[in-house]
Specification:
By secondary structure, the protein is of the alpha+beta class. It is about 25% helix and about 30% strand.
């Protein structure tokens, strides 16, 4: 499914997701040296059991940022699955991961 009545959620919600990204994102030396800024779009499926499947880069930045974003997503804890018509369903999810000097 591409969407559901109730979209999947990171455990603890959006604030917890932002905290996880800030804590876990490993920016490459190349990206730091080049002062790379921008957003990597990672697309993945949140399965009915909350696991993350098939993460891929939908829009990349290069300089090691794409690999860092993929690694971050692969290491995520299980999500709260999406629901449609009262049933848990697998849902495509797009996650923007921002890279900035701040």
């Amino acid at each position: 499914l591409f969407s559901a009545e109730k979209m999947p959620k990171f455990p603890g919600g959006y604030t917890a997701l932002k905290r996880y990204i800030k804590k876990s994102l490993q920016v490459s030396e190349q990206a730091k040296q080049q002062k790379v800024e921008g957003t990597v779009q990672v697309q993945f499926i949140v399965e009915v059991n909350g696991s993350i499947q098939s993460p891929r880069i939908a829009k990349g930045l290069g300089y090691g940022c794409d690999e860092a974003a993929l690694s971050l997503v692969k290491g995520m804890p299980k999500w709260i699955p999406g629901k449609h018509n009262g049933e848990e369903v697998a849902v495509y999810y797009n996650l923007p991961i921002k890279f900035s000097e701040k």
